[in-house]
Structure formats: structure tokens, C-alpha cells
């Protein structure tokens, strides 16, 4: 290599011209004539224009303006970290300038670790620490800035001299190759602190499927505003553009940029030329098809709000060559559905990612200092994993005291979100187009988060009862379904696995701030009131006006409960929604009810003070009434009032209620909840005529019998748990899907089940007097699970019929008491069996029946079990949870329990001669309370088996296993029980019951379970990912069964 040693310059002005450079090298003088000279010459030989830093200036000198200009004019800055780098004030000043340029303009920065390790670049360690000790004496005002810059630079991905085993020439070539790669394409600035980007880009890579798929794909990155969609898209562009013949990133398409300009950008980016220009959109569309139609292209289109934006640009699957990928970022799911795009739902940051991002912004390092740790966690919790909020608040709180952090956080929680966050999130609200989407959003954000979607939709539906038979076209965009769909499409609301409406905390606060803005000074004129202090003020001053459409006040946790005048509601003529909990009034509450707005649709009054609802309680628009914990003795006085619009009635925990309501007054009732009404002697016979009733909840009552329910043709769910005096369940409608009657200890007689063809779930745990259910064996085809643990007197004939008749594959199974496995099973074992699939002459192998006996060696609790099914011949494996295995709390933990379920051969993929090994064991830590005593297996030949879909876990269905080879030889691939299922965390498989917890509060019957923030849940999906990892590489097929 020629001697290109860097020489002194005779004039500092000779390089002051405004030319631009490819590479700027930041280095300390000790490497000037050795490594840096070697690297600089090699870069120049490869055609790179390197900024000519040829000044041998003494240490301690400040950098010149031309050095600063050189940094600004360079596309890439390479920082050569060596042991003496931190000793140079010159180097540290350069570093600050470089990182400032990176933050402001996205300059590419490449750390090079020469003769030191990346961990040595630490102002608190080794040579760097010694250098900073000296700097502290001479330049104390600069030390913190330099330390922050070093920490930030050290966190970037760079090149390490050790990678080439100390060969300098090879290391230089590696650096040149990396710089060539980085400068060959247009690289977009992603973020100054790209926390959490890599795992999301990696996950998105599965959707791109660049290597294996040759079709043209459209893939959407979907998420709410501020979630980081653009940031992730930029990194996707940077990472994958070199896999395509051309690439283009079209930014902010939703803004008012001319279509022609975007088309020109696309053409010039992909073709890498400025010579092609179009002047009209139609011309651009044709040219895109002509010039790019055969090129494998990556196009990323940012912030698309409407399909017509893409149509106008002329971008579709036919615009590009085979193997092309069109990536769209959007808040609007409807756009992606219309385009039939694959959808990647961008996840929010987890707690640790959030803390790191906040820390970089607020402190300039990865973790907060000790005194800020607790309040930092509080800010992270407030931000809810939203990168926008973490960055904005981190910047705002930088250099503030912990007390100031606490004050600011308290203010944001109490009033409005930080203005920059609010304005960004409000964009989605402003884009709503259907006529009732905006008021729906405000209603949900103020009153209905965490509540059942169908329940809320019926309350808020503006269409009259008489309009229900009109089709969607006649109803236009005014019905609630259209509005909720648009809110979901715009990522403003989500629906969780239990059907509840959820909303990010900052989206909620944005909605509430929109309400506040409409009347910032006069509380009584705000359209919705939810804030504790605001509501109290309006009620105490009696200043509520007709603008108020909704009001909520909960005093149940207040030790001092003020009283309000019943006249406080007199002027609220527009009130539609009223929610009161433990609120006391002075005056006649009958007058209060009389003066409530005729527009009222939802009355939720926990602790309702009257003994009876007055007969003149006439509210023609009322849909839902929740009077839980009331003082009612009877429901209403005799009157001819017909409550035709009432769909929901909840009188739970009304302990004084001694008379059942006459249900003939409620012809359109859909959900009835009379839970824990302990003095209620029975249910009125008129309930049998409610032909629109869908759900009945009568849990924890003392009555001995029920009237006939067979006439309730639409009834789907019936809850009778803990009705300890109930002796007989009457005839049931054949439409019923779920019956739960756990701990009905007096229950002796069940109706005939011969025609219960839609029954999916049957719970009769701990009914010791029950001996059989007539006809149940004829209705097993629709069943997903039967729980009869603790039913200790079932006849042997009944047990045999249901076990032999079970045909349901997938989730659930039959759960019974006992340790006896029927004799018809073919293979028996302890916790595992091995066999070969036999040859069949005339029969078809349809599936597999599994049976296991398990017990608890500790205390009653959930004891999740896992199944491992290994096909040694095909070298594949299947893993599955027995999802609802448990040891009921009301049973003796020493009892034995039997589970039976089936696996379809559509999932197994077995053939004659396959060698099989099946293992069943507890999932959880070593002291898990579950113990598998024995298992048995039999084949299903020429018998219909049904793969059920248990809708309590809609996100867990996976019946599409792949046939991949096992890695390694057979012995090495074999795993122990510890490696398969026994060592997994016990909470992985724990399944929330359909009630969601305590019988008193939760479940489908609780129509007022609002929660302010959406909380991520861990379920069986986590089980599969962890189980897959722990079972070794040979488990290539994962699906869910049992």
C-alpha cells in the first residue's frame, strides 16, 4: 500500500471550501500515523472522499470551525475508540458534535473499537476513568456532556478489532466493507436511542419473508398514534433495502404533498436517477408500471389514512415485479383490510424497554439513577408503553428534580396530557368520519372502558327500537356497530379476549381532554362529567345544565360521604348516561327519579335507596338498569307501565329483595342478573315468556326450585353456581350453550339432554347427590368440555356412556372424579406410553383418545398439565396443554381426577407404522401440586371426531402444524421430563375462568366491570413459546389441544 501518511497543513483555510465528504474520522493522535492513516488511505483507494483532518494540534486544543463543518458535511462519522481517546479534549468535542449531528440530521455513526473492548468505553472505568478525573479539574463544566456522549456512542453497534483476531489489515478491510454497505444505499435516521426496535424488526421480517416468497405482498404495520410505526418502518427500510433491486421510502403520505412529487420520489429512488420526471399523476402511474413493473422493489409508504391515496399514486400489486414488498404504516385497519394486506400489529413497549427509553431521554444513559428510579417507574406506567410519550416526557423532565417529576406527573394524571402528546393522539379522533364515531369515542373514554362491547353498543345505539329491522344501508353510518368498527380501525379502542372494550390510558385522557376543551371554565356545561371533584362541584352547586349527557360519581371508597340535593339533576335535560355508587341525597329520591331526563338510556345506581321503584318511573329510552346493592324489597309498584326498551336488568346483592319482579313488564329483556339476592324465595313464572332473553345469572341464591325455562328460545347462558338449596334444574331450551351449576350440593335431578344439540360447556362440579344426566350421551357432539369433579355418585353406566361417546378434539375434554381408566383403552402406562400405529385393512385412522388420572400432592388449586406427543418416525413433535385441569377448592386434595380428550389425526398426521411416544406431566415448578398417576391411549377408527373451537380462547387456535425434521440423532433429541414440561412456570397454563375470578364480581353477568387501563394478559400463547424453547430444537410443530 502506498504511503498516504497524514501530513500537516500549512494553512487552516485551505480546506474551508464547502465540499461534502463521505467519511469523517474521529481519532486520537497516537493512532494518526498508524491505524488511522492505514484506514484513511484504504478508504480513499476505494473512492471514498475522506475529510482531510491533517492538523497535528496539541491535546487540550478546542476543535476548529472547519472541523465542525467537516462533521456536518460528512455522510458518515467513524469514531476510532482507542485507549487514549478520552484523554483528548479535541476528540470529546468532536464526539459531542457528531452525536448532535446524528440526533438532528440522522448522520450515520460507526464506532470502531481499536485495541480496546466496547465495554472499556466507559467514563467510570479504566483509562477513561483516569482521563475524566483530570478533566474534572480543568473542564468541570464539560464533563457531564462528554460522559453522556461517550455512553451514547458506546451503546451503538460498531466493529471490534477482536473480530479479526488482531489482524489490522483484515480489520481495515472489514471497516471499508461496512462503510461501503452503509453508504451504498440511502439510510434513514431511525432514532437517537433506538430502544426495542430490533426485536420488532426481526418479528416483522417473518411477514416480509424475503428469501422464500416470490409473490408481491402488501404488509401493514398497524398501531395507534405515537407507537413508533414510522421509526420501525425506517429501520425495516435500512435493514432490508439491499435485498431488493430498488427501494423507496415515501414519508407522511397523509399530508398535503402533491401526488406527482411522491411519484417522482418513488421513481428516482428505485431507479437511482434524477433524469426521470413526471408532470401529471396519470403519467406517473403509467411510468411506475412501465419502469418498475419488472423490478423486485421495496416500497414503504408511511402514514396512509385512505385507500384512495394509494390508488391516486398508482401503487398496487401490479405496479412492481415479482418478489416486491409494499409496506404501509397506518392507524386505520380498514385500509389494510380493503387491500387484503397481511397485518403486523405493532406492540407497545414493555416495562423494561420503556424505562430504558425514558432514561436515555431524561438522563442520557441506559438506567435512571437511584433517586429517580421509583418516580421513573411511575412515569413508565403512566405512558403505557407509548414511545412518543416516553420521549416527550423524558425530554421535558430532563434535569428536573424528583419532586418536580412527581408534581408534573400528578398534574398530567389530574388534568390534560402533555400538549405534544395530546396533539399527536388527537389526530386519530379528528380523522373519524362516521356521524356517531366521535360521540361514541367520548362516551367510552369517559364511562365504558373495561365493559362488555355488546352491552355498551346497545346502550349507545342511537337507532330506535322500531328501526332494528332496517338494514345497514337504511341506517347509514349512525348505528353503533359502524362507529365502534371505525374506532377499532383507527386503533382508538380494542376488544379483549373476553369481549370488553379497552383503551390505552393516554388515548382515554385525550378523549377526556377533548371534552374539557369544549367548556374549560364552566363545569356544568361540559357534555360529560367523570372527574370526582368536577362532579361533586356541579352537584353541590346545582349548576348542571342541559349540555351534560353523561355523569359518573363513585363514593364507595370515601370515608366521608357528602349528601346532595335531589334538585341537582333538574336542569340536566340532555342526560343519557348516569352512574352513581354509594351516593347519598337529601330530599325525596322519588322526585329525583321523576326529574331525571327522558333521554336517559343507562341508569347504574349502586346502593339505590328506595324500597320499590315508583310506578310513574317513565323513561321511554331506558335500555339498561343496574341497581346492585339496592334496598329494594320488591322491584316496582303495580302499574300498567310496559318497559319495552329495557334490555338489561341487574339487581345483584339486593339482600332485602323478597319478591321476584314480574317479567311480563320487560318483553325485550336480554340479560337478567339476580346474583346473591339471599332473601329471594323464587323466580316469577313469567320469566318463561321472555323469548328474547339470552343470559340469566342466578348465582348464590337460596331458592329450592326454578320455573320452567324451556320457552326461552334464545337463552344461551345460564349460571346457577352456589345455589346450595337447588334440588332440580327444570327443562331447558335446546338453544342453551353454557350451563354452570358448580357447588349445587343439593342438586339431584337434571333435565333430559337428548336434544341439547348446541350445548358446549357443562359445569356441575361438586354435586354429590347427582347420579346421571339423562340423554347427555346423545348431545356430546357439540360439547367442548364437561366438568363433574366432585360428583362422587355418578353411575358406572353413565360414566361409560359419556366417555365412550366423546368425539370432541381440541380444547376442553371430560373431567370427572375417580382413578379408574376404562378397560377398552389399548395402551396403558405411568406418565408415558410408547407404541406403533398399527396397520389397518379396512378402517380409517381418525384420531387418538387420551385418558389420564391425576391428583394433588399439596393443596387444592389449578394444576395445569401438558402433553408431549412425539413421532419418532417422522421426527416431529406436538405439544399441548390440558387447559382446564384443576383440583377444585371444594374437594379433598387427596382425591383422584380423570381427564379424557381426543386429538384428531388432521393435527397428528400419523400413518401406519409410525413409532409414537406420549408423555403427560405437570407444567410448572418442581413443587407443582399436580401429579399424574397413569395414562392410557386408544385409537379412533372410522368414527367422526370434531375439532372444537373454544371461544373463551379465540386467539389460541392453531391446527396447522408443520412437518419439519428433528435436529440431531434420535438419542440426542430425546428430552427428559424436566426439559419438557415440568419446569415451566406454573402460571403459564393457568386459564382465567369465564367468570374472570370471584363469583360475586366478575364474568359475563357483571355488566359494570369498567377498568381504566388495558392490562396485557399472559395465557397459553406464553405457554407455547416457553414450552417450545424448553423442549429443545426437535420440537418443530406446536399446536394446542385438550
Q: Report on the biggest sheet.
A: 17 strands, mixed
Q: Which structural class is indicated by helix and strand composition?
A: alpha/beta
Mean pLDDT: 82
List the uncertain runs.
1-19, 465-476, 949-1042
Spatial shape: globular
Quote the beta fraction. 15-25%
State the helix count: 29
How many strand elements? 36
Query: What is the radius of gyration computed over CA atoms, rounded to a whole number of angstroms?
Result: 35 Å
- Provide the domain count: 6
Please estimate the helix content.
25-40%
**C-alpha termini separation:** 70 Å
Helix-strand blueprint:
Layout: E1 21-26, H1 35-45, H2 65-72, E2 74-81, H3 89-105, E3 108-113, H4 126-138, H5 140-154, E4 159-160, H6 168-184, H7 197-208, E5 217-222, H8 229-240, E6 246-250, H9 259-271, H10 281-292, E7 297-301, H11 307-313, E8 325-330, H12 333-338, E9 342-345, H13 351-363, H14 373-383, H15 387-397, H16 402-414, H17 419-430, H18 437-448, H19 453-460, H20 472-475, H21 480-489, E10 494-495, E11 501-502, H22 505-518, E12 528-529, H23 532-541, E13 550-554, E14 563-565, E15 577-581, E16 584-586, H24 589-595, E17 602-606, E18 624-626, E19 648-650, E20 671-673, E21 695-697, E22 717-719, E23 738-740, E24 761-763, E25 785-788, H25 796-805, E26 808-809, E27 813-817, E28 827-829, E29 832-836, E30 845-856, E31 865-871, E32 876-882, E33 896-904, H26 905-908, E34 915-922, E35 930-941, E36 946-947, H27 970-973, H28 977-982, H29 1020-1030
Helix pairs in contact: 1-6, 2-3, 3-5, 4-5, 7-8, 9-10, 13-14, 13-15, 14-16, 17-22, 18-21, 18-22
